[in-house]
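Late entry, zinc ion complex.
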Amino acid sequence: MKGPGRAGHAPRGPAAAGPGRSGHAPPAPGADWPAAAPDPGRLGDGGPDDAGGTRRWHAELAWLPGSGVQRDVLIEAAGDRFTAVTPGVEQGTVPAGTVTLRGLTLPGLANAHSHAFHRGLRGAVEADQGTFWTWRDQMYRLAAVLNPGSYYALARAVYAEMALAGITCVGEFHYLHHGPGGVPYADPNEMGRVLLRAAADAGLRITLLDTCYLSAGLRRDGTPKPLRDVQLRFGDGDAVRWAERAAGLGADSRGMLSPQARAGAAIHSVRAVPPSQMHEVMGWSHKFGAPVHAHLSEQPAENADSLAAYGRTPAQVLYEAGVLGPRSTVVHATHLLREDIDVLGASQTSCCLCPTTEADLADGIGPARALAAAGCPISLGSDSNAVIDLLAEARWLELTQRLASRRRVHFTADELARAATVAGHACLGWPDAGEITPGALADLVTIGLDSPRLAGAGLAGVDPASADEAVLASVVFAATSSDVRHVVTGGRDVVRDGRHLLVEDVPAELAAAIRSVLASPE
Ligand SMILES: [Zn+2]
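Prediction complete; structure with ligand written out below:
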């Protein structure tokens, strides 16, 4: 199978591309490519295009760039982009066919750091004794048994869960490249293509962060420890061979794999890629203008290894290897020296924090406010997918800073919402997404305000003039993924009234996929 496939959206507007497919069932483990996506004809309940191909939504409340929360917002799109955004339009005056969005509508959420298959460990590892490193051993046991068929089924269900949580774009940090023993599949990018197809079929935009992963760690003299056992599935031998394989994904000159997918690069970490190999990855990324991500200083042991081997912290190693910059993102950034923060900020490197995973794995609390003050855009990721809830990540970004400092309000609700939307999209190579504004990609997520969690939002103790603004704070600090009612990606409905329109029964597919993977023989 060549090419990453297409989004499973209804081919209704001018941006639709690719052949239609119909009749879908999850593939059996071990199966090759999955069958087709569901019948896109079912997507016709989101409001018709008018004769000019314009779709319209009327948002009771919408969070708009530069003007905060506005009331009665008429939002129009043609193809996959917004064409007009007009606050103060009374509902009774909107054109026929306009879809009503009750609640607070935000831009689509961007999950900037995911390892889809880790979802299979949810509940199995959180309560165990042990450390990050014993958790990693359990993760490796899961990685050992995945094949293209089971990975597709699991990833599609996980991405469908993300869509239900309001996520319209995912950055998949992908390193499970090869078959058992490190033997490449007939198509060496088969596992990457599985993820591209899974995202498309779940209605998500994706940046496939193809990860260079060469060694199991560092010896004190700086020589790399060779990969072994399941780690052999991650490695390409050296960065030149990584770049050759990644080029086989077929990105165009702008790094695009399809209108809904782009290629990115990742350096797994300073432990897994020697500095001498990093320039090859950076050269590949510069060629395509592609984002580059790297895990950074998640655990103190990584810093100790780096200092022993190179006499430098991981951030300093990345800086000297030319990895940092506005197109680069470091993930976690937990254990940093002041000099590390300065070099990350001065280079305008993005920092993706994953607070629920960092808490689960007892990583520590990164200096998020100091990084933002130094000039780093802050984005958010679900990482291990033990929780898939970007609103939870956003509030825990703030709450962990409060716990660490015993002071309140490091990030405003507006800043936290930007981390979950525009900053996440930008660090994944989609600077034209994450804001409800003409010209941007038409992604929307509507949070219902009628749940017990959010009833009364905007009423408590605030000046009536700022009551609508307070709704954003209520959503950021109290809403959960369960409050997501509607999701639009690229102008097309993916979730309507809490129901995924492309994946019939997301919980059943998750359960079946996880059961199947866990039952697989090693
Ligand atoms: Zn990660």
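The CA atoms of residues 334 and 367 lie 7 Å apart. Will revisit in the morning.
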